[in-house]
Design goal:
The chain is mainly α and 199 residues long. It has a single domain, classed as Orthogonal Bundle (Jann2411-like fold). 48% of the residues lie in helices and 9% in strands. The longest helix has 22 residues. This is Conserved protein containing a Zn-ribbon-like motif, possibly RNA-binding.
Length: 199
């Protein structure tokens, strides 16, 4: 966990990191990092989507409606990319949720210059939804531009289900983090080996 109280990002894409803000989804006690709209604005700042002054202004809204929309988007992103990572067909309803939020986001954006002579969506103003607009854009960017063949689901047996982009050369990464689920998996393997030896 970072000093800000949020989970350190490991997804390799903003939309995947946002999906991971509900950690340990298949465990008995998942950890929620976005309880309130203030948390949402704080996470958006933590992820570099808005600056500190914008975050401070947005937090004054404390918008319950925007929080609900953001969390619905988060669950849709999780369902879509979990399916992608497992080689399955994403749920149509989840894809439509991502599409709708993307449409809302770009309707409030403007095109501005980006590195290497390209253009990107830019957001201004202090509307509460600004905290999640870039997440919706990032999700559609990953869906349409990839690399979808590098989207993976954490293989930890403990129920992490974290999403990440496998950027290793041979695409051999199996766990969300080597110092977290990776270590736990090694410990479990060693325990099984010891048990097998005893038998």
């Amino acid at each position: 966990m970072s000093e800000s109280g949020f989970l350190e990002p490991f997804g390799g894409a903003v939309c995947l990191d946002f999906a991971n803000t509900l950690d340990g989804r298949a465990t008995a006690q998942p950890t929620e990092y976005v309880h309130t709209y203030v948390d949402l604005a704080g996470w958006s700042e933590f992820a570099g989507l808005i600056d500190a002054p914008t975050s401070a202004r947005l937090r004054r809204h404390d918008s319950e409606a925007s929080l609900r929309t953001a969390l619905n988007l988060r669950e849709a992103i999780f369902e879509v990319f979990t399916a992608v990572g497992r080689g399955e067909t994403p749920p149509a309803g989840s894809l439509d949720e991502v599409r709708q939020r993307y449409a809302e986001a770009v309707a409030s954006a403007r095109l501005g210059p980006a590195p290497e002579g390209s253009f990107t969506w830019e957001f201004t103003g202090d509307q509460p939804d600004r905290a999640w607009w870039p997440i919706a854009v990032d999700a559609v960017r990953l869906l349409t531009q990839g690399p979808l063949n590098r989207v993976k689901v954490c293989a930890a047996e403990a129920g992490c289900i974290g999403l990440f982009l496998d950027t290793s050369k041979n695409r051999s990464r199996r766990w969300c983090t080597m110092d977290g689920c990776g270590v736990e998996a090694k410990v479990q393997r060693q325990a099984r080996r010891r048990q097998a030896t005893r038998r």
